[in-house]
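hey
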């Protein structure tokens, strides 16, 4: 693949000069009040939304969302925009009917855009597929017919455990088309994690593949499915996409090749209308306990908000833009901004199977150049990795097609923001730092292009039609510059409706701390004197590793499940690249032998098998005791201090402060890398 030797030096030089002094003055620090970067004039003149959008939304929030819902095609209009008579159980667009897949695919074909590319897909080895809206419609119809043939009905749960290939999206849309509820499980999760999700959701079908390509080699998926399905009697069939050609074990009668079953179906399929509140999907996410939560999203409100936020936040121009969310479909970012938002808006997207460093570290930039990507949306952890690799890599490619950048998944530190802006965005691309969660379904805090003056490191303002506050422990709104908790004070269309099968947990987790009308997000936050909101990370026992949510309790319970471990405590220690890294402290059982490195590797493998490779601790320290308060609670704050090599704070509530010295003595010199 040819590399461009020169990179356009653009209009941004002025911009680069403008930031230079702040950058130097704040290197390595979190900036509390950043420079305010005004929107470029050209963008302001042509952006999809103007400054009056905030007033319009606050004048009548429900009318505003109804206007956005009308961007979709409904077969029956709703009677009521919001029913919030039984908080926190919301119903949006009550009585309205639509088909989500029709809205994402068919209507664009009917409008004459069948030849427009929906996805430029590229596999890690460099194989490519171009899929137009007309082709996508045919494939989704065939897959929908196949699901019906397999006796999958509206309301049934279908697990999707696939790599980043077009069939993942086709399978999701086929489910949506027939009203089945999809449950995509990230391919990096283990057989155990998959089994517990299949069981919790009561899945009847698993759609998987022989494997996918990752880091230059085929990696298998089917063995994990065989293992998990063996324990899930409710799963009737396994539909297998051929991707790598690896040998697979086959269970006759249960396993079916996608190509056989889907390949023979008709491309005709009449979409049925479903209620606005019909369940669309379940996405499992880590909570503060060992059991992941099945976040339930429904149809009309979810699609309304993902479509509108995708259009407004990214200033999406369907005829001109090439949009790329560089994330995995297995996470909510992929659901909302690779699949549902872009398709509802008739976007042309890029979808890439592999990792950023395969076969070389310029792979992403090469793809931007090749497809003329105009909008790139990714996570700060990736930006920090690129920073580590050096600016010469992006400088070797022509990135002049880019006009807007997005960030998601964790706070973006100002240094990473400025680097992204300069070395990827050529100094001319505004960055939308979007705060949201699996639970919120769509963007909740973000600047708006052409409207908001940008402040590097801050997600800034609630999206129009969203109400957010920073409050203290009692729920009282805080004055400027105080640190508190982020809450959402009004229901929103894409909000989760419940935790699958556990309404009580839904109420307890999100809507009990400050009453049934206030959503507790679990994030610390602060509002500066200019009204910008800064996110400060999780306040609960959830870690954020490379933008992935992992529960400390989940890793602890895996560790204590190993026969050598008596007790475990896990903390998220700050990490310059991944945001946080997992550090575990374990006490061994009396008869277990501390074999040093060997044991540590064994424990890491054990956690990888229980949860998935992303949950493997960066460091595991074998200790004699753990610091506990007099009431017996593990003092994670101290463990975090140790893991981050900080001076220890107040240890007066420790039962035995000598414990700390014992733990410190056990610290290895350098963290192990995977
Ligand atoms: C964090 C990902 C700061 C936050 C869409 C949240 C962020 C959790 C941002 C949700 C951001 C996400 N700035 N923090 N722009 N975006 N977070 O469910 O802690 O995987 O609660 O959803 O990621 O992670 P989730």
């Amino acid at each position: 693949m040819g590399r461009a030797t020169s990179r356009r030096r653009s209009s941004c030089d002025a911009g680069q000069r403008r930031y230079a002094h702040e950058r130097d003055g704040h290197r390595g620090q979190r900036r509390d009040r950043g420079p305010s970067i005004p929107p470029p004039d050209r963008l302001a003149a042509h952006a999809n939304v103007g400054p009056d959008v905030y007033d319009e939304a606050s004048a009548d929030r429900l009318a505003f969302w109804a206007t956005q819902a009308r961007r979709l095609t409904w077969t029956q209009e709703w009677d009521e925009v919001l029913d919030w008579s039984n908080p926190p159980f919301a119903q949006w667009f009550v009585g309205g009917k639509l088909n989500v897949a029709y809205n994402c695919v068919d209507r664009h074909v009917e409008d004459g855009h069948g030849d427009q590319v929906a996805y430029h897909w590229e596999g890690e080895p460099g194989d490519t597929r171009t899929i137009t809206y007309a082709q996508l419609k045919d494939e989704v119809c065939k897959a929908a017919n196949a699901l019906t043939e397999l006796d999958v009905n509206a309301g049934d749960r279908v697990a999707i455990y696939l790599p980043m290939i077009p069939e993942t999206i086709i399978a999701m849309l086929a489910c949506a088309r027939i009203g089945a509820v999809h449950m995509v499980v990230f391919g990096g999760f283990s057989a155990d994690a998959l089994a517990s999700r299949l069981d919790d959701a009561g899945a009847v079908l698993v759609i998987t593949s022989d494997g996918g390509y990752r880091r230059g080699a085929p990696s298998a998926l089917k063995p994990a499915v065989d293992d998990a399905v063996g324990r899930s009697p409710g799963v009737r069939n396994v539909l297998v996409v051929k991707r790598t050609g690896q040998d697979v074990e086959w269970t006759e009668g249960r396993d079916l090749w996608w190509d056989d079953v889907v390949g023979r179906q008709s491309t005709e399929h009449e979409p049925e209308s479903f209620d606005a509140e019909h369940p669309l999907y379940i996405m499992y996410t880590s909570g503060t306990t060992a059991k992941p939560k099945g976040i339930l999203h429904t149809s009309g409100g979810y699609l309304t908000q993902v479509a509108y936020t995708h259009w407004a936040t990214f200033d999406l121009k369907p005829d001109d833009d090439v949009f790329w969310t560089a994330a995995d479909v297995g996470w909510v970012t992929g659901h909302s901004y690779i699949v549902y938002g872009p398709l509802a808006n008739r976007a042309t997207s890029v979808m890439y199977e592999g990792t950023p460093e395969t076969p070389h570290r310029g792979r992403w930039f090469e793809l931007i150049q090749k497809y003329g990507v105009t909008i790139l949306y990714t996570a700060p952890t990736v930006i920090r990795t690129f920073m580590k690799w050096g600016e010469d890599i992006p400088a070797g490619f022509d990135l002049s097609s880019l006009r807007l950048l997005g960030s998601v998944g964790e706070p973006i530190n100002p240094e990473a923001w400025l680097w992204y802006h300069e070395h990827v965005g050529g100094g001319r691309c505004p960055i939308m730092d979007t705060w949201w969660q699996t639970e919120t379904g769509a963007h909740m805090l973000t600047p708006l292009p052409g409207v908001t003056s940008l402040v590097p490191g801050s997600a800034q303002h609630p999206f129009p039609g969203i109400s957010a506050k920073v409050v203290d422990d009692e729920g009282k709104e805080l004055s400027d510059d105080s640190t508190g908790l982020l809450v959402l004070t009004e229901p929103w269309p894409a909000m989760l409706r419940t935790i699958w099968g556990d309404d009580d947990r839904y109420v307890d987790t999100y809507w009990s701390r400050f009453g049934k009308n206030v959503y507790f997000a679990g994030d610390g936050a602060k509002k500066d004197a200019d009204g910008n909101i800064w996110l400060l990370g999780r306040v609960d026992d959830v870690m954020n590793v490379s933008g992935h949510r992992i529960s400390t309790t989940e890793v602890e319970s895996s560790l204590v499940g190993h026969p050598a471990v008596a007790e475990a405590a896990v903390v998220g220690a700050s990490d310059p690249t991944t945001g946080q890294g997992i550090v575990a402290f374990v006490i061994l059982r009396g008869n277990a032998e501390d074999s040093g490195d060997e044991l540590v590797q064994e424990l890491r493998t054990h956690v990888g098998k229980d949860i998935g490779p992303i949950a493997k601790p960066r460091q595991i320290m074998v200790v004699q005791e753990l610091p506990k308060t007099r009431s017996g609670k593990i003092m994670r704050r101290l463990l975090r201090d140790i893991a981050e090599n900080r001076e220890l704070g107040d240890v007066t509530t420790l039962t035995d402060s000598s414990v700390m010295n014992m733990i410190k003595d056990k610290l290895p010199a350098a963290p192990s890398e995977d």
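Residues 1-33, 669-674 have pLDDT under 50 and may be disordered. The first helix runs from residue 12 to 25.
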